[in-house]
Amino acid sequence: MPRSSTTWPAFVCTHDDPPLQVFSRAAAAVAGRELGVPDPANAVRGVPIHIANSCEDNPSGLPAFVQAVRIAEGPTELLNTNRDEATLGQHSIPLVNGEMLINFTNGKSPTCGYLAAFKGRCPSPSLITNHIVVVGIKLVDADDVYAQTVSFYHDSSFCPSSRPKCMVPNQNYGYRILGDAISTVLGDRHIQSQPDSSDLLSTLLMGTLIGAAVYLLSFRRAMLITAVVLAAYALLAVVLGRSGWLVDPIYTPVAIVLAAGFSLAARYVCFSWTSAGSPRCLRECPPKTSRRSFTNTSMT
User: Fold this and answer.
1) Fewer CB within 10 Å, N- or C-terminus of the chain?
2) What pTM was estimated for this model as a whole?
3) Which of 139, 119, 117, 118 shows the shortest CA–CA distance to 127?
């Protein structure tokens, strides 16, 4: 990605915490630092593409990660948004409820202390040369620690020596989460979520197919098919997840297991009625081979 040879500082703000005028006047841009709405587990998943109620110095409501990309690749790049996607120059950003999902980096972004960088004493100057540098307060009690959806190992740079266990594995500093949002756009490492309609369709379809297979096939074949389908679905979820697609890991497998369980219960009830001589159930039970296999398996 091209980088400007000139340093363009940009400041961030919130509606309740605007920047000082001496800083906002000297800045190339002022942007909002709001993160996305936490999920039910109180974990941050994304960042809003537009901030409806930002500070007065950010009348356009642009978030910080958008302004950082515009400054890095050209201040004339325009942000165009619609319901499911936003475009920023050459970048296409998929949106989920007006937010861009962050592709977290497991806390591996290089860091350098502010005073060391200001005095030119970074251990490796290449960490900040021709790079976007996110400056933040690395203070646990400064109200800038958030839970995120990805857990990772915290090295010694995260916590002070007096509090080596200052965070749980899924917590991170806000400025690092913002850095991950910037790298998501610059590297085009976007995350696509499975549509609700697709999730519902796959749940109903797999549940119906597995339920019918368990009811009609022999017991051993039915259990083998159920196990293979569950393993294949888990493998597919992992492969798609590494490719940037989020697939629901809960509802479809649960539907498969429940469908198999209910079908087994229906077989057992039907076989019990068959033994009692119910003519109606004889017409509705699985084939004789399936009944014989199920009976033999139950006896052993």
Assistant:
1) C
2) 0.72
3) 117
Residue pLDDT, tens place only, 24-56: 787 778 888 888 888 888 889 999 998 888 888
CA 94 to chain centre: 13
Could you tell me which residue, 151 or 119, shows the higher pLDDT?
A: 151
Q: What is the pLDDT of residue 255?
A: 92
CB 132 within 8 A of CB 28: no
Report the alpha-carbon distance of residue 53 to residue 32 in Å, rounded.
9
Name residues whose C-beta falls within 8 Å of residue 183's C-beta, 6 or more positions apart in sequence: 103, 105, 109, 189
Q: C-alpha distances in angstroms, 73 versus 78, 135, 188?
A: 11, 19, 14
Report, in angstroms and rounded to the nearest whole number, the Rg of the chain calculated over CA atoms: 27
Q: Alpha helix locations (H) across 32-92?
A: 64-73
What is the distance between the alpha carbons of residues 43 and 39, in angstroms, rounded to a whole number?
A: 5
Cα separation, 204 vs 76, whole angstroms: 47
pLDDT at 295 over 60: no
The closest alpha carbon to 66, from 43, 41, 99, 38, belongs to 99
- Please report, for the chain, how many H helices and E strands are present, in that order: 9, 11
